[in-house]
Amino acid sequence: MTHMSALNQGVKGGAMRVLMNHIYEYKKGVRRMVLYTFNQQYMKYAEERLEHQGIEYIMVPLGNDRVNLFFGRSECLDVVRLMIDRPLNELTPEEDFMLGTLLGYDISMQCERYCSRRGKLTIDN
């Protein structure tokens, strides 16, 4: 194996180890929904893994050889289907807040992010 193919195998292995960890956390109930961004060359592998596990998913190509993969509970993915019709950085502050909450991000940090995106300062009591 050449150095470059070994390096590429290591990148694939790392990327797919992260995916497998996300799947593990989802299956154990740690997360109800996951967002994972990866190189589109691994789409087939990711699809096969999720289908083998019986996990519902949505893949959104980003156009730069990258893919956003959402997977998890169907009710969470239904919200994603209704909301995600443009790049994530173009979501409204409310949509961004909802997505972060669905993904299980820290609620206090989501509140701070929402206020910041709305252009309002938080007030300490």
Element layout with pairings:
Elements: H1 3-27, E1 33-39, H2 43-53, E2 57-61, E3 66-72, H3 74-83, H4 93-102, H5 107-118
Helix pairs in contact: 1-2, 4-5
What does this structure look like?
Mean pLDDT is 88; it is low at 1-9. The protein is of the alpha+beta class and 125 residues long. α1 (3-27) packs parallel to α2 and α4 packs antiparallel against α5 (107-118). It has a 3-stranded antiparallel sheet, sandwiched between helices. Helix content is 54%, strand content 15%. 14% of the residues are buried.
Assess the beta-strand content as a share of residues: 15-25%
Broad structural category: alpha+beta
Q: State mean pLDDT (0 to 100 scale).
A: 88
Number of strands: 3
Low-confidence sequence ranges? 1-9
Q: What is the global morphology?
A: globular
| Oligomerization category of the chains in this entry | single chain
Estimate the helix proportion, in percent.
40-55%
| Widest sheet, order of strands | 1-3-2
From the N-terminal CA to the C-terminal CA, the straight-line distance is: 62 Å
Largest sheet: 3 strands, antiparallel
Count of runs of 4 or more consecutive helical residues: 5
In sequence order, what are the helices and strands, one letter per element?
Answer: HEHEEHHH
Q: Rg, please? A: 17 Å
